[in-house]
Design brief:
Layout lengths: L6 E5 L9 H13 L4 E5 L2 H4 L8 E4 L16 H7 L3 E4 L2 H6 L4 H14 L2 E6 L3 H5 L3 H12 L9 E5 L13 H18 L7 E4 L5 H8 L6 E4 L6 H13 L1
Length: 246
């Protein structure tokens, strides 16, 4: 029986205003009943402070590697902690693509997260072209080597594998393929950082109520990083319950 932390994480991306806190409250009510897993919502920075008190773990969606300074529009780790966050996503594929963040940038951000007392959810994943070319494992090993700092432990780091070609497309790898890739990711982590094979590894490619139970039953999948399906309690609660039951 694994002792790795089981996490149902929702990434709201650039969605959500004060009126949507009702969804946070409804999601948190389910999370409170499923103590077997951590229910985590990575909200827009504008909502983190207002979501305190609902009993759900809160996270940011990115951070700057510096503690403070002349970085207009950015947010630091200590600011996220001050708002009530305990986790932060770093290296999401949309940050890598839309903002040109490199493995070195992500490694520095993860270190900044740790320094602020945050758990870093480090994202890795291959594009469709890389997948079709059979380069998935090489890409993931390279991203692990470049993005995960030495010193990663189960207490400060979570890994999220997100096949970029499956995000928001409704496409999902075959279940045996998900298990195989997660096992390889875990092995690469074990090689890269001592004890890295004990890190929680989440799956992040179009997880929803219809496929959550099958995916979460896999030996090397410790939960999910969920996008659009985490915005509404009616969609996300079944995912949380599937993880708790797995």
């Amino acid at each position: 029986m694994t002792t790795r932390t089981r996490i149902a994480a929702g990434n709201w991306k650039m969605n959500g205003v004060a009126a949507d806190l009702a969804e946070v409250e409804a999601i948190a009510a389910t999370g409170a009943r499923t103590s077997e897993v951590v229910t985590l919502l990575c909200l827009p920075a504008t909502l983190i402070d207002r979501a305190r008190g609902y009993g759900v773990s809160l996270g940011g969606q990115t951070l700057h590697a510096a503690k403070s300074g002349a970085h207009t529009g950015d947010i630091s780790g200590q600011m996220l902690v001050d708002a009530g966050a305990t986790y932060v996503i770093v290296g999401h594929s949309e940050r890598r693509t839309d903002h040109g963040e490199s493995d070195a940038d992500i490694c520095a951000q993860a270190g900044a997260a740790w320094a602020a007392g945050l758990t870093a959810v480090i994202c890795i994943g291959e594009t469709e072209a890389q997948y079709r070319a059979g380069e998935t494992l090489d890409v993931l090993r390279g991203q692990i080597a470049g993005s995960v700092p030495q010193g990663a432990t189960p207490g400060n780091t979570v890994i999220a594998y997100e096949p970029v070609w499956a995000i928001g497309t409704g496409l999902t790898p075959e279940v045996p393929e998900i298990q195989s890739v997660h096992a390889e990711v875990r092995a690469a982590l074990g090689t890269h950082v001592g004890g890295g094979e004990n890190l929680s590894v989440l799956y992040g490619g179009s997880v929803k109520a219809a496929n959550a139970s099958e995916i979460f039953a896999l030996e090397d999948v410790d939960g999910g990083l969920v996008g659009g399906a985490s915005l509404k309690a009616a969609d996300f609660v079944p995912v949380i319950e599937a993880l708790a039951a797995s």
